[in-house]
Design goal:
Blueprint: E1 4-5, H1 19-26, E2 30-33, H2 53-77, E3 81-91, E4 97-108, E5 114-117, E6 128-132, E7 138-147, E8 152-156, E9 166-167, E10 178-185, E11 189-208, E12 215-224, E13 236-238, E14 243-252, E15 259-263, H3 264-277, E16 283-284, E17 288-291, H4 294-299, E18 308-310, H5 324-327, E19 335-339, E20 342-343, H6 350-354, E21 362-369, E22 372-379, E23 381-382
Length: 384
């Protein structure tokens, strides 16, 4: 059982959550998962207001250097970026067969053809997937492993001597640093490049497809103004050194210049298990919960304005039987405020903090019950 961040308002023992609380708990915005539209080529230009001829000359030199560095990065990374297409036969209302097609992006992580992309790019097990490399070659692809909690997927093609990307460290990202997005815009313009900056980190979004029927909560996201367009999903977000810092995932459907990427460290943490075991291995605590915001805490008179309120709705169990949480005595209404040295809140959700650990690791869980702080030592299990 995987950790699930339920975005449905909850109740800590005697807390009654109204419709307003539900709406407050649910999201930061409706975001459309990028899955097949336009991309533009742009170069980031520094904007200076410097008086005097010396300042103008320095500004021009800096702009040229920035532009040259961007070009070098694109040349370095582009051979590792691939287009992914899917085709699936469907019956319409009258029994006629039609082929549904879609496209996305991915990037090579091993020389023998392991590719990282978004789960929503390869969401159907019945579809036929093809990968197109920069040199125009087409390969059939198969799904190796998916992680719905973080919208990640690994697929594989049979090839040799490919050019893998260089994976960076998303923990070192700074707001304001340059960000370069590369992807298959519109499903037909391969390796379209857009340039911007990291606008914010630690964002939580509610993402969904264009139908609005399939949604998921994604946490700890990188926000960027580098245009992430439909079709760019699964492509790399790269720093000025040519290292991948994120996986392009979503674009705000109600605003321009707001895109989101999954931090690359979330993928790096499971890459080893995918290579060794052919599956994604993540730790499990065994609770369903709601992330507490200041608004949610105020509306429901909670003792703290951060943490994870253990709660389940719709008949689900808030604490999974025989799970590490159950063995530690956690129960519905408890508020988890700390895992190890990480205090939950400010971009650190329960699921993102747990992703740093492996099954079998022992962690200290600090939680509140009836306003009093308690501590439990928990051995994490493997998520099923």
């Amino acid at each position: 059982m995987t950790e699930k961040n339920k975005t449905i308002p909850k109740k800590s023992k005697k807390i009654k959550l109204g419709k307003e609380a539900i709406l407050a708990a649910i999201i930061v915005g409706i975001i459309a998962l990028a899955f097949g539209v336009v991309g533009g080529v742009g170069l980031y230009k520094l904007k200076y207001k410097v008086s005097g001829s010396v300042g103008k000359l320095e500004s021009k030199i800096t702009s040229v250097q920035e532009q040259s560095a961007t070009i070098d990065v694109v040349k370095k990374v582009s051979p590792s970026v691939v287009s992914i297409t899917s085709e699936q036969s469907r019956l319409d209302f009258f029994g006629r067969v039609s082929n549904a097609k879609s496209s996305g992006t991915g990037f090579i992580v091993t020389k023998d053809g392991l590719i990282l992309t978004n789960k929503h790019v390869v969401s159907s097990e019945r579809a036929q997937y093809s990968v197109f490399t920069q040199d125009g070659k087409e390969y059939p692809a198969k799904i190796i492993a998916t992680d719905p909690n973080f919208d990640l997927a690994f697929i594989k093609i049979e090839a040799k001597d490919l050019a893998p990307v260089e994976l960076g460290d998303s923990n070192n990202i700074q707001v304001g640093q340059k960000a370069i997005a590369i992807g298959n815009a519109l499903g037909q313009y391969q390796n379209t490049v857009t340039v911007g900056v990291v606008s914010a980190i630690g964002r939580a979004i509610e993402a969904g497809d264009q139908s609005g029927l399939n949604t998921e909560t994604l946490e700890n996201m990188i926000q960027t103004d580098a245009a992430i367009n439909p079709g760019n999903s699964g492509g790399p977000l790269v720093d000025i050194g040519g290292q991948v810092i994120g996986i392009n995932t979503a674009v705000d459907s109600q605003a321009q210049g707001i895109g989101f990427a999954i931090p690359i460290n979330l993928a790096k943490s499971v890459l080893g298990s995918v290579l060794k075991e052919g599956k994604i291995v993540r730790p499990m605590l065994g609770v369903r919960y709601i992330n507490i915001s200041k608004e949610f805490a105020t509306r429901n008179n909670l003792d703290v304005d951060h943490g994870a309120l253990i709660y389940a709705s719709g008949g689900d169990l808030s604490v999974v039987p025989n799970s590490p949480a159950a063995r530690a005595g956690l129960k519905e209404g408890d508020i988890i405020i700390k895992i190890g040295d990480d205090t939950l809140g400010q971009g650190k959700s329960l699921v993102s903090v747990l992703s740093k650990y492996q099954p079998g690791d022992k962690v200290r869980v600090v939680y509140l019950r009836d306003g009093k702080e308690h501590t439990a030592e928990v051995t994490l299990a493997e998520s099923k």
